[in-house]
Amino acid sequence: MECRDNKVAAAALLIVAGGILGAGLALLLAPQSGRRTRRDISRYAGRVKTRADEAVEDLTTNINDLVESIGEKTDELVEKGKDVAGGARKDLMRLIEEGASRLERFRTKLSRM
User: What is the DSSP string of 18-75?
Assistant: First the structure.
């Protein structure tokens, strides 16, 4: 779902950038004074910069959220792994103690014979 949202956002950004580029070309080719054209280009460039900054900020936020989510999932998996390993260790220790106890009983039986 996130991948689809990212594609939609990228497409929207490309459409906006294309529109701005087209408007810039129209200004360059329009019959008006150079001073006015430069002012218009400067104004549009400022808008493009603002929109680009917003897009970068949104992308940064999305990436940070993704990294945080991955970190949380990793922490959960590590904790589950520790729990599983701890449980297996306890079971193994119990089995070793049982085996040692049985071995001692068997030795006792053998020594009585």
Answer: HHHHHHHHHHHHSSS-HHHHHHHHHHHHHHHHHHHHHHHHHHHHHHHHHHHHHHHHHH
Distance in angstroms (rounded) separating the CA atoms of residues 43 and 32: 16
Give me the domain span that covers residue 83: 2-112
Q: What is the mean pLDDT of each run of 10 residues along the chain (113 residues)?
A: 71 83 77 79 89 89 89 89 84 86 83 77
Assess contact for 55 and 13: CB atoms under 8 A.
Answer: yes
Which residue is listed with tokens 């779902």? 1
Q: How many domains does the chain have?
A: 1
pLDDT tens, 57-86?
Answer: 988 998 888 888 898 999 888 888 888 888
Residue recorded with tokens 């070309």: 25
As a whole number of angstroms, the distance between CA 10 and CA 22 comes to 18
